[in-house]
Amino acid sequence: MVSRVERKRGQRIEQILTVAAEMFGERGFDAVSLEDVAERLDVSKGSLYYYFASKDELGTAAIETLGDDWTARLEQLPAAHEGTPAQRLRALLREHIRIAVREYPAALRLFLVPRDWPDAQQARIKALRRRHDQLFRTVVDEGVATGEFTVTGVDTVLQCMHAAMSQAPVWCAGKRGAALDSAIAELADTLMMLVGELPPHRAPR
Amino acid sequence: MVSRVERKRGQRIEQILTVAAEMFGERGFDAVSLEDVAERLDVSKGSLYYYFASKDELGTAAIETLGDDWTARLEQLPAAHEGTPAQRLRALLREHIRIAVREYPAALRLFLVPRDWPDAQQARIKALRRRHDQLFRTVVDEGVATGEFTVTGVDTVLQCMHAAMSQAPVWCAGKRGAALDSAIAELADTLMMLVGELPPHRAPR
Amino acid sequence: MVSRVERKRGQRIEQILTVAAEMFGERGFDAVSLEDVAERLDVSKGSLYYYFASKDELGTAAIETLGDDWTARLEQLPAAHEGTPAQRLRALLREHIRIAVREYPAALRLFLVPRDWPDAQQARIKALRRRHDQLFRTVVDEGVATGEFTVTGVDTVLQCMHAAMSQAPVWCAGKRGAALDSAIAELADTLMMLVGELPPHRAPR
Amino acid sequence: MVSRVERKRGQRIEQILTVAAEMFGERGFDAVSLEDVAERLDVSKGSLYYYFASKDELGTAAIETLGDDWTARLEQLPAAHEGTPAQRLRALLREHIRIAVREYPAALRLFLVPRDWPDAQQARIKALRRRHDQLFRTVVDEGVATGEFTVTGVDTVLQCMHAAMSQAPVWCAGKRGAALDSAIAELADTLMMLVGELPPHRAPR
DNA sequence: TATGAATGAGGCTTCATTCAT
DNA sequence: CATGAATGAAGCCTCATTCAT
Prior knowledge:
Four copies of one chain form a homotetramer. The first copy, chain A, is mainly α. Helix content of chain A is 70%, strand content 0%. Chain A has one domain: Tetracycline Repressor, domain 2. The first copy, chain A, is built from nine helices and no strands. The termini of chain A are far apart. The model of chain A has no long low-confidence stretch (mean pLDDT 88). The A-B interface holds A 27-28, 30-31, 106, 109, 112-114, 147, 150-153, 156-157, 159-160, 163-164, 166-167, 170-171, 183, 186-187, 189-191, 193-196, 198-199, 202, 205 and B 28, 30-31, 106, 109, 112-114, 116, 150-153, 156-157, 159-160, 163-164, 166-167, 170-171, 183, 186-187, 189-191, 193-196, 198-199, 202, 205.
């Protein structure tokens, strides 16, 4: 059982992490100063050091939190567990893009742009990526096993999917409402083609 | 008619741009200081300001040079003008990836990571992207027109291609020789699927 | 009569002072943060402020404690009260060096490096030095009075002795066991020469 | 042949070094900020980094300059090369103390207080000390060889001499004119006793 | 043209100190 | 009594930019 004090500390950290992840994601790790983060939190710069030993550590923790949340939401998506591999993969793709576009405007950059993190943090980030990747890999593997999917190579396909999804927020930057939904759907459909699934709304040849 | 002096100036600028593009590409715009660039050129930092008004301007110009070279090489690729749209597209993809991986290890970061360039530079970069994009778009459009390609939407497909190709240097970071060639080929094949082309080395079902 | 509470407070203070003196002595006043001290005491940083008004005050008190202990040990040394002035002085020197080298590795730095303490603390430290100095002065004075010692000037001789002894921990940094004992003895013998006592193990000319 | 530009640069460096050595010596390396040094030089903090890569490097260079000057002056002292070992040693001691007291008020602290310099600088400082030490060692060795000096051990004697001389500026802090000269002479005489030389102004027993 | 020198703003980090609980 | 939290000043360092020569 956690004491009230510990709970409060946890909340504070979470709050910092949320804001930091958002800012790092939007403007890039290097472009965001701790002063910026502190100001947005309405806190002194020094206070951040009470919770995090360095900017690097804050950055890693932010990525980790963001990645954990993200992965958890995908894992808990009901549609990811029902139906054919194609249906499940499409559901995962859509949800992933939706989260990227709607909640973490440009946060995926944190995963894609390789920064020379200190070793300690390198490992944590890798573990995170692996877990996240596994979600998609499982479904693709299954589709390949059943013969439903045709792929060049699972690794390559997954990489392409993630690379494309990471850019989604940039592409969708201006879109709202139905246009946004439609863009998301189209992107998911496009990526389904990487496993050999032709777009559903077009008649097969 | 250009004087000898102007010609020399042009050469100097070109030399600076080449080095700068390389360095920005490798380590990222922010991580490279003008001191670094000057040192590699064996020139004083102040001299750079004689040719470029600011670091931003040098950055934009470098990107432009790099992008121009890149696009020119793709445009001049013989295979890009012969054969079916599929053959031409595959040739373009392979060459593009090859350049990215072999010559500009991380240069694409410059295009993908949106930096808040001043407006003046923003425009130049956009124009560059458009010209580069047009190369691929033409081929895809043609394939769609002939019915050879099946796509969800040309824009989306092109975006996915570029996003994936931009990450290629990261994925191929450790590979050498045959393994590298094979990885490049597989990536190109994978991206061909985005236009409905199944991998060539697999028998269609 | 002191209450149980006051006694406990006294013990707490003594404990803090012991640890602080040790740490300041080893690494220097400036290099030790209150965080460091608190951590070693397994206490919160804020708690230290309950006992000491400032770091300076803690520093002075620590020096005082250390100095008091040191002086007390020299005062209680039996050999310091028996035999000829030469025997007593040599005993004092040896014990002083032994304490410096063995127990307060770099503590003398606290006395030698003049820090700009606030006036209040300046006085306390001066008083401490005087009491400590008096021990040696008494013996030297007596030796001079009996004609046993030949000195240029008592003040100067004492200063030289203390300066040399303060550096002893540095010189003996690597030595252990017999080598250490021998170094200590030689240093004491050397300093005895400042009062005209030739080394005992050499035959007088 | 050095160009005018190089000469100017050298002068600037020397000027910085002189001021820095003085300040570090007076108040201690840690207690002096680069801001302090810059201000005294009427220069911006950043400028110091144009000449020295870090505060540590500035510190080492300052020590080195100071030590070089000091040693050179002792080496060139005519009295250090004439007469008996006793006369030469006394001349060295007096000049050394004179320099310490008059020109580098508390600079010797830089040599005595062991700071954890980076390895690169550690070596340079050691070399400096050795050269400086050699001056005194030569004379003492010679006096011992001729039987003129009686010592416990040359190393120990030299260490005591230097330790004592380093504190001299502190002891002489308030003295001026004749009182200062007399104090210096007495200190030198006192240290001569470490090699068995009784004070000259006292009748031998 | 070219450069050595200088600068100032801004970034990361440490730490003594304060305070509400 | 004790502490967790917060703060702000100060320190070191980097770097784009300017300028006299």
